[in-house]
Specification:
By secondary structure, this protein is of the alpha/beta class. It has 2 domains: about 170 residues, Quinone Oxidoreductase, Chain A, domain 1; about 110 residues, Rossmann fold, CATH 3.40.50.720. Helix content is about 25%, strand content about 25%. The chain contains 9 helices and 14 strands. The strands form 3 sheets. Strands 3, 4, 5, 6, 7, 13 and 14 form a 7-stranded mixed sheet that branches. Strands 10-9-8-11-12 form a 5-stranded parallel sheet, sandwiched between helices. A two-stranded antiparallel sheet has the order 1-2. Strand 8, helix 5 and strand 9 form a beta-alpha-beta unit. Helix 4 crosses helix 5. The longest helix has 13 residues.
Length: about 325
């Protein structure tokens, strides 16, 4: 099968398209025929080992020192079940699925194996029937992070919630999920993304290029930093200081999110009932994965960068 292999840590060019052996599912695993995946900010961090000294060393202890022990990266999967292990009960061959591979990685390929049940090696659910595989691949990454950290912040109906970085993969999901929880949502983004964030349901949009975007003195019960601690700014500090007396500030870098099938099941329901819209910036074929990584490295994508995986006989 075709797969993109990370030969070592470094720039996008360390990714190489190769022919590798097709995996075989173990007793409690499923084999997925992948039609679409995504390039996330986390993928680029892993590929480039782009963390400060101590976190970077810890990451290499877990993932591999000079190159990833699991050389096929990729956290997002959308495709069909090709085969199942003999102890699998949730899925059958032919089932359309989407999910998050977690520490299992492996989605930059035509096929990958995943556990039947949720674990830190991944979680999998039935794909929403109303959207394509490409749009389905634009959901799991944001779903895992936005759901986990909004719940960690104990989001409640009627709260005022500020999403910093509202136009990215996590931010576009967080805005819509916060509205699902009946919060009053403000989104911080650039001038070019104001209309996008507003279209996702934000009650207010704040342009981070304007020095006075927080001049109104508004206070928030929950601030979610959907960008992460690797990017800092004076505005982010001002957002932290815009909390109510009992408000909470949560960053997507605060912890590794727990992978929950329930998040994917909820997003499936919201998508099928028209209450959630996947956001795609660009779509690349697997053969152009290096270009996709270069684009995500720039740090200005809107929503998700999706990658299509061809098999020659997709219907």
């Amino acid at each position: 099968m075709k797969a993109v292999v990370c030969t070592k840590y470094g720039p996008p060019e360390v990714l190489q398209l190769r022919e590798v052996a097709k995996p075989t599912p173990k007793n409690k695993e499923v084999l997925i025929r992948i039609y679409a995946t995504a390039v996330t900010a986390s993928d680029c961090i892993i590929r480039g080992a782009k963390l400060a000294l101590v976190p970077g060393l810890l990451m290499r202890v877990v993932l591999g020192f000079t190159k990833p022990r699991k050389p096929i990266l990729g956290l997002v999967v959308a495709g069909d079940i090709e085969a199942v292990g003999k102890e699998v009960t949730r899925f059958s061959p032919g089932d359309p699925v989407y999910g998050f591979t977690g520490f299992g990685f492996g989605s930059y390929a035509q096929y990958t194996c995943m556990p039947d049940e949720e674990s830190m090696r991944g979680c999998l659910a039935s794909k929403p029937v109303t959207i394509s595989y490409e749009k389905a691949a634009a959901v799991p990454y944001g779903a895992m992070l936005a759901m986990h950290f909004l719940k960690r912040g104990n989001i409640q109906p009627g709260q005022k919630v500020l999403i910093y970085g509202a136009s990215g993969a996590v931010g576009t999901t967080a805005v819509q999920i916060a509205k699902y929880y009946k919060a009053e949502v403000a989104g911080v983004c650039s001038t070019t993304n104001l209309d996008l964030v507003k279209s996702l349901g934000a009650d207010n949009v704040l342009d981070y290029t304007r020095q006075d975007c927080l001049a109104g003195g508004e206070r928030y019960d929950l601030v979610l930093d959907a960008v992460g601690k690797r990017k800092s700014s004076k505005l982010k500090l001002r957002c932290r200081n815009a909390l109510t007396a009992n408000g909470k500030y949560i960053s997507v870098d605060d912890a590794v999110p727990k992978l929950r099938v329930e998040y994917l099941v909820l997003l499936k329901e919201l998508i099928e009932t028209g209450r959630f819209k996947p956001v795609i910036d660009r779509i690349y074929p697997l053969e152009q994965l290096v270009d996709a990584h270069r684009y995500v490295d720039m740090g200005h994508k809107r929503g998700n960068v999706v990658v299509t995986v061809e098999h020659g006989n997709k219907t």
